[in-house]
């Protein structure tokens, strides 16, 4: 019988550590690492029923993908109920998920020590900044997480320093508190093996398509309990009318809760352009020097040349803001570069980007261009076949063969070979780009 057992949960000052045991068929999906998360507030007095939430939030989707059951000594009854609702939503979204049952020796009615605080997962991008703007009267604690897009590896130390610095500066300027969470959740899971088995079922990677809504929110549970947070917000990526298989959606995040804390998938009622409108109104009223950080290339500012930088700059102009005032070097001549890059397929675009350029296109139909270059770009975008601009999402044959082979390869072999192969491929690409 397929199963995952949470057999050790410990809190030492600010560090959470958990160990799991699995049936042999699931061993390949877990590394030899213990699950560890570091907080910046003491979690020693947090009940075990809450302490177990971060590891459950990572392992349960893996269990559901394999029809496995999960066993734990103690869990908060509010979160146990939430897991059932999240499981139903994820299984409805992904056909390959089979489901499973959570078995607890004791389901505990943990009593919260709520203080009326709120928290917001924050990066400084369009979505999380819009969520701050909408909830600024609550003075939410800004929460930045290391473990997904910024890994715990020392190679990412500089990126993490930049994110911490940006979040801290924003918080100081707005009289807010911060919270920084660091976890090994993706190296605790054998993420390469999860990709090998399930990449063919999803548009993105495992964590983006399946795990990150429940995973990131659940990671915050001990900290939120210790701080007495009533509400925890995660900004929406998509909006109403976009039905993509994505791991963070209202029908996932709004179900997540534990004693004293309710999570919220925020600003789903606004398109990305409307979120920029909300930011523009806030800039006009209160924050004329507000800086955004959305770049896919850099963490210490925006490169101004990647697809996301250009897309954000165009969106800012459509909302009445000058991009150069808010972190983006942008000139009207850049419209020609955007069109060329889109037509030549220089950027790998997915359905996310197609919807976002469609959102921009709808706004351009109402806009009055301020230059010949802008007018020409708007006219081109109105007629552009956005579906044709979206690159084929299927990975190269070499990737598909590697993952197919991995499904019949011993986990210890694949988990060693895949990172080395990936590093070699990255080095080759960098050399080719010089």
Automatic annotation (TrEMBL):
Keywords: Plasmid. This is 7-cyano-7-deazaguanine synthase (Queuosine biosynthesis).
